[in-house]
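re: the backbone from monday

yeah here it is again, tokenized this time
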């Protein structure tokens, strides 16, 4: 078939394009007022500080929090590290008897590695399996969360298979045991409704570039009442209430705030339209690829995600190589250097040959129906040719 004259971007879980409205909001803070937001002795510094605080309020509004509960960071990886290690180190400094830190096998690498690293500091990491659907078994969680548990960390929306965990139930289990509840909501913000009080979250991580904002900026929600206490990871000038030292990048903060504002006002409309595009793509692919399997729970999943295993053990890398114009992935961008198949798919029980035959597709705000139709045709054709070649051999 005719090749597209431009790439078709379907990797919105790895990163989203910056919304033009976000870019427009950021631009003056590079070109006109480039002042340090901490330089409040003069008018430009005070203006930058005011812009930062307005953005902080917009981020807070997206998740039902107070502006003073938002700590600005460089992104979700830093936020996750600060939440997990910060909570553990504060507890250790207070000689708390709570030593268990619970997470899930399908979490982002930065959460898994943060939790595992705490073993060297005298904590007890517990990594729970998931069901074949990708969802956490709540009874399994209840069995390990008790008075010795310090923290429970569960991702809101999985970055590979798109499943949406039952955050309200998880939060209630943690709260009943007196444990802190942290959720990595980088893939959830703007895609599903989030309310920190409804889910009883104590700590929640966000990332700008997952919500059509800039890279290099994110946030950590830290509950005030009942207060979640964490220790800082960085030493410095004491910015962000002493929890995250370093000069705030005003343009990036403004971009994060604008992206959050747009997500809060347009997220529901976006989600419905994106889910429709996903269903259109899936139907077209199923017509061209008999036996295609969707991984992850069919109902509790975010609207733009498709994690697809192609039949015939056709290597997903071969499909991608045949259609370089279609930008998809085999899993998390943060794990793409690894040779092994996705650990998330392994956790679901997929054998290695099926895991290697799996693609992740992420539809976003700027994906058009034409993109969907052309991508489906190209991917189906690539699979057909690859499968035919295997049969001939």
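seq for it, each position gets an aa:
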């Amino acid at each position: 078939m005719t090749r597209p004259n431009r790439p078709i971007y379907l990797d919105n879980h790895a990163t989203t394009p910056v919304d033009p409205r976000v870019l427009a909001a950021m631009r003056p803070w590079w070109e006109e007022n480039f002042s340090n937001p901490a330089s409040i002795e003069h008018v430009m510094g005070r203006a930058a500080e005011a812009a930062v605080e307005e953005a902080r309020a917009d981020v807070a509004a997206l998740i039902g929090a107070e502006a003073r509960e938002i700590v600005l960071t460089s992104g979700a990886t830093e936020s996750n590290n600060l939440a997990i290690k910060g909570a553990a180190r504060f507890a250790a400094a207070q000689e708390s008897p709570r030593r268990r830190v619970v997470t899930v096998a399908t979490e982002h690498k930065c959460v898994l590695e943060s939790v595992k690293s705490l073993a060297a500091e005298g904590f007890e990491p517990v990594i729970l399996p998931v069901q074949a659907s990708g969802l956490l078994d709540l009874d399994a969680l209840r069995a390990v969360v008790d008075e010795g548990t310090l923290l429970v960390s569960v991702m809101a929306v999985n970055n590979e298979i798109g499943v949406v965990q039952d955050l309200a139930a998880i939060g209630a289990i943690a709260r009943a045991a007196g444990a802190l509840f942290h959720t990595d909501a980088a893939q959830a913000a703007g895609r599903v409704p989030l309310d920190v009080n409804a889910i009883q979250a104590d700590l929640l991580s966000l990332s700008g570039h997952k919500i059509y904002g800039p890279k290099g900026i994110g946030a950590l929600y830290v509950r005030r009442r009942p207060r979640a206490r964490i220790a800082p990871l960085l030493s410095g000038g004491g910015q962000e209430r002493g929890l995250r030292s370093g000069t705030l990048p005003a343009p990036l903060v403004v971009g994060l705030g604008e992206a959050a504002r747009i997500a809060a006002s347009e997220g529901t409309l976006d989600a419905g339209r994106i889910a429709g595009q996903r269903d259109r793509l899936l139907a077209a692919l199923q017509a061209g690829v008999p036996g295609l399997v969707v991984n992850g729970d069919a109902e509790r999943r975010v609207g733009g995600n498709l994690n697809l295993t192609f039949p015939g053990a056709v290597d997903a890398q071969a499909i991608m190589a045949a259609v370089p114009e279609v930008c998809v992935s085999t899993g998390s961008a943060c794990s793409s250097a690894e040779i092994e198949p996705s650990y998330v798919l392994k956790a679901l029980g997929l054998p290695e040959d099926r895991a290697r035959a799996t693609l992740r597709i992420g539809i976003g705000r700027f994906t058009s129906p034409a993109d969907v139709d052309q991508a489906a045709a190209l991917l189906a054709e690539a699979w057909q040719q690859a499968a035919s070649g295997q049969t001939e051999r």
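Residues 250-288 form the longest helix (39 residues). The first strand starts at residue 8 and ends at 9.
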